[in-house]
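Below is a concrete protein record.
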Amino acid sequence: MRIERRYTKEGQSPYASIDFRNATSEIRNPDGSIVFRLENIEVPAQFSQVASDILAQKYFRKAGVPAKLKAVEENTVPSWLWRHEPDEAALAELPEADRFGSETDGRQVFDRLAGTWTYWGWKGGYFDREEDARAFYDELRYMLATQKVAPNSPQWFNTGLHWAYGIDGPGQGHYYVDFQTGKLVKSKSAYEHPQPHACFIQSVGDDLVNEGGIMDLWVREARLFKYGSGTGSNFSYVRSEGEKLSGGGKSSGLMSFLKIGDRAAGAIKSGGTTRRAAKMVVVDVDHPDIEEYINWKVKEEQKVAALVTGSRICQKHLSAIMRACVNCEADNGDCFDPAKNPALKREIRAAKKMMVPENYIQRVIQFARQGFTKIEFPTYNTDWDSEAYLTVAGQNSNNSVRVTDGFLNAVTEDGTWDLTARRTGDVLKTVKAKELWEQIGYAAWASADPGLQYHTTINDWHTCLADGEIRASNPCSEYMFLDDTACNLASLNLMQFRRDDRSFDIDSYEHAVRLWTIVLEISVLMAQFPSKEIAELSYKFRTLGLGYANIGGLLMTSGIPYDSDEGRALCGALTAVMTGVAYATSAEMAGELGAFPGYKKNAEHMLRVIRNHRRAAYGEAEGYEGLNTAPVALDHASCPDQVIVERARKAWDRALELGEKNGYRNAQSTVIAPTGTIGLVMDCDTTGIEPDFALVKFKKLAGGGYFKIINRAVPEALRKLGYSESQIGEIEAYAVGHGSIDQAPGINPSALKAKGFSDASLTKLKDSLKSAFDIKFVFNRWTLGDEQMKALGVAPEQLEDPEFDLLTFLGYSKADIEAANTHVCGAMTLEGAPFLKKEHYPVFDCANPCGRIGKRFLSVESHIRMMAAAQPFISGAISKTINMPNDATVEDCKEAYMLSWKLALKANALYRDGSKLSQPLNAQLLADDDEDEDDAIEEIAAKPMAARAEVVAERIVERIVERVVREQEKLPARRKGYTQKAKIGGHTIFLRTGEYDDGRLGEIFLDMNKEGSALRAFINNFAISVSLGLQYGVPLEEYVDAFTFTKFEPAGMVQGNDAIKNATSILDYVFRELAVSYLGRHDLAHVPPEAFSGTASAGAVKNMEKGSSGGVVSHGLVRGQTERFRLVSGHEPAGEITETVKMELGTSVAAQTSAVATAFARGAEAAAAVEISTAPAPQVKTAAQQIAQARMKGYEGESCSECGNFTMVRNGTCLKCDTCGSTSGCS
């Protein structure tokens, strides 16, 4: 191979034109403790602090690097390429502590990577001349140092340790195929042949303990997880639950084994450095257990919600029962007898109402009897690493369903779908395809899993179909090939291929693609693999994974909206050039080194796929060979750079021409990976094919901390769009803020002085506001001091209140605070920025709404169509998660998956905001001002089902504020209710109720037939006072607890009431009756509900007009059983209530919210309103506040398991940490 120099000169160091700087790398936890620190490191000057930290923390070898080295002579290798080992004689002269240490210079890392690739390339015969090898070595080092390209993380970890430093150790059970003999060899050295592959696909057969079976897979997975790689498997060969075994028994089923594997993967990773195993589970849509698999994670999320909510309810009520026992003063154990301790009785009833188990209630009372005064009931939260999530299954993998065109056609045609036995192929069950599709849509909506892999489309583009179908993928879904193969990745940073005039340097781009295709091919030759099968098949097919990152940044800097025909066309053209040049390079290598061993058998398939790629590059709409779904061809007319379009055509012409002549060296060449950690080391603003996530970034400082800067793509985009420098400055200031209140509207120094602020306090504020994220975080006792706070009139108890908001206390409205916040801290969005034209807003659209006031974000369809523009030019697939807003529907999820299929994508996954309890709602920052309180409650009540559990568990239970509602809730002028006549001790009494439209009790009237008696007048007025209390929010439960069991005459037997047969007084009777009818308190009745369930006869409701049952049937009349009298429309079968309706009735969020709120209410403070407050805890921010702040910055709101910072961003189908570079994926 001939290697051209574009960046370097022969005889000159590749680093000659690159500035390096001395730096210190330090990563801290949120509490300030140091996670990692390395001083006096040398890094390229263009590396940001984050990139420097990644290089130092992740990629520097920390131990075993000799201070003195000597070359190891090899006759067949040029002397400048000889490997090195420790110089024992020279080391002996050094102090023992100085003999071995860490890498401290970026050049050491770049040299060992590029040197090892060149060394093995030379041995493998990849270079025509020694000058080509030198050019290869120099060009690669330059590109690494200038952040143009980066290989996947295992290369940085493992490659070159033996070549550069002589680091070695015994074999770890790995294998490789000797490139000279073609024989499989077991590795004797752990390092001579590095392990550079990040992505694996492994097979699993329907066998329990033998090699290649189920239990063997966990061992094979463990070997990969231990060294930081990811793996995926299709489990569809495993028999379903109940299928017969050879020994006569029945299989325990697919799900039982998946749960074992899930737990094994979690255990391995919990002892390592990443937050979870990088694992993909795939199941075919015709598997008999597919329905249980689809709903697996939905049920596990529900378990977490139940654990969180239930544990907190139990803790609340059991503690209240303990207090009721302890705070009582009585003799002979009366404190522990609910009949004699009213407080205990009330707490027991409240606990029972919230379904607290009775044996737990009894246990607490027994504890109290034994002298205990406090009970600790463990509560759970929704943190990813919490006990709640560790308790449930399915948390250590991405789940996907393999769907065929046959199934999807059955969905569109409303046909049936057969689920077949694994061994015999017999049909075990037939289902409606649409119902199964509905389950997939609901599961994705509710739990973000499963994703879909489009089996037919994947295999239409399969280059090696003669060797079998592609059945699975790696964890991030970009690598799709045969089972028991591996792929090593590298990504090009598109932003580094721009000329000074900001045009795209297509020549340098093609040069880089060619060189890095060779790098990845050499990596296959030099690699060792974790199993015999993977070693043999990787040698046979030699799959590569070259890709790119930063398409979102490139489009924004070019002034092109991500959601535009121009943006999609440019993305498609760049992808077409990359894969065309990669395949042309592969064919060029095949001409010199031979095609991959599996090529001859698959030549027909591979050339057909290449021709289809070429047709798409030519923009052809038809004429494709053997495709069930036509791809989205390259849009030549919309591409803003026609040179790139022309290069794409030429690249595919050459790829086909050389392939027909030589064959290909590699069965696959490209993927679009998530570029997690490697994206950070290249300082990429966006990863893979993703758009940007924020317009304001938080740049890490060398000494710790962050400062706000505008996304670097924004000023360039504004210049491209024609804005002046002064206008750009104003727009930037709007987004980032001025960092000062000097010119702020409303809240400024003069206004604050008038409020009582001293000059010293204003100085403190000025210093703190420079780096503030929100001005409310600065206006507190820790900034101003207690003396200033007291001078402002703040009471001591307010000082201690973590939710106290000083600015609101001083009389500033929410609008005043928001305006000042925008001025000081910035809007963090460009919406509403001065000078910015609305037609330019789309250029700056991000994956999520930006800042507090941002409303715009990219649509679901825009993500899918961008993927569709690139997919026809990718050998593998695209790692991408489609962001969906919280208010997206199940139908939206199904439509997104259906559109993906119709646009010929190979795979897709959805993440609806709030669908996972561990990932907080993007829209969680609710109004904390009085005027917005009702809106906040309504927003909570209106949230979809899956998001609701988090709201109730996290917000209501944890952060509820109770207060008395002062407004009267008026009853409707024409209202329903019922009249009950009864006799108590010979006295006739009439009870009449009035109800709100939703069936709640709003008033009572009491009358007796004793004209002129004092008791009658007293009872009448008492009813009025109770009615007023009900309308002002006093819960009926409080009246029931207060007045049942009261004793006075008349009393005795009750006639005329079918539920209550005895009363100790009129009031006892009245509130027993109301409790039974409106609260379902059948414990206060003397007759079981079954005996009087037919109270309301058909005649009582036969003349009602059409309407909802809740609107026409009195709740009290039918003892709360309104669903028994639901009015039926003409087209609906009478008496039918679907499970969905039952579920909605039973789990109404209004009922949940009020039930939880009421559980906290006591005495006169029976609160009917719930206030959600976002005011920060003054000194140490709560997890909720850190999450909220992170979400407003554009992060996901999760904490990193390595460094603890809330800087996780979505990264393909995974997450990565912007602080330390940890990733949940495999790159």
